[in-house]
Design a protein that fits this description.
By secondary structure, this protein is mostly helical. It contains 12 helices and no strands.
């Protein structure tokens, strides 16, 4: 005797519902027994190992645990936690990452720069630009400039151009921004010494002549001021010196 199709369908639905109930019960039991993710350890090294395990496995409550660890008394633990938030997903803890940009430890500020850029918006990029141009530590400035290259969307590109053009009191950041841009835009060779003023102004115009740069400025509603007269006379069809391709 053949099964009634409606009856068979009901049995399948009941089986699925039972399986889901079992899975939910198991999850609830696991949370009850083990609790949410937590960074623990007697020493900084142990807590750093715990952070790395959480970032790799991403258990329930991972981002909350990492945000809590970002307030650890040890700077190395704080830096690891802020960096791990970038891997796990910092969306719910923007205030924690932003506060890390003002940490007393250069390592924590550098980690904050790498994580902040993942938000991809003007506010986050602005915070990273401040680290790139105002931070007293040269390594933090270098890390912040390089981090902007990983900023999703057009904001990172715009910020790099503005650092290269305007951060005259931080020639190391200017130079790093130009090198980062020229690597990203595949421009060769890379004359990036701001002290050689004529060559530096030409370098900036070569960068700004690229379509990707102009499109990025349009996308964020910023004005890109160009000085085509600074380009060498021998240029290709886009106004880019053929010698630097």
């Amino acid at each position: 005797m053949l099964d009634d199709p409606d009856s068979a369908g009901r049995r399948r639905l009941q089986a699925i519902a039972a399986a889901l109930a079992v899975a939910a019960a198991a999850t609830t039991a696991a949370i009850f027994i083990w609790g949410p993710a937590r960074v623990s350890g007697q020493t900084p090294a142990e807590r750093i190992d715990a952070i790395r395990r959480i970032a790799a496995r991403r258990p329930w409550g991972a981002s909350d645990a990492l945000a809590e660890a970002a307030a650890d008394p040890d700077a190395a633990v704080r830096a690891e936690a802020v960096a791990a938030l970038g891997r796990v997903g910092p969306e719910g803890h923007r205030g924690v990452v932003g506060a890390a940009a003002g940490d007393a430890s250069p390592a924590v500020r550098a980690a904050a720069a790498r994580t902040l850029v993942l938000y991809g918006d003007a506010e986050a990029a602005g915070a990273v630009v401040r680290l790139a141009t105002d931070d007293p530590d040269a390594e933090v400035r270098r890390t912040a400039v390089k981090a902007l290259s990983n900023c999703p969307g057009p904001q990172g590109l715009v910020s790099l151009v503005e650092i290269a053009e305007n951060a005259e009191d931080r020639p190391d950041s200017q130079s790093q921004a130009a090198r980062t841009l020229m690597t990203r835009l595949h421009i060769w060779p890379r004359p990036t010494d701001p002290s050689d003023r004529a060559t530096w102004l030409t370098t900036l115009e070569v960068i700004k002549a690229r379509d990707a740069v102009q499109e990025a400025f349009r996308a964020v509603g910023r004005t890109l001021v160009r000085r085509p007269e600074r380009l060498p006379p021998k240029v290709d069809e886009r106004g880019v010196p053929a010698a630097v391709e």
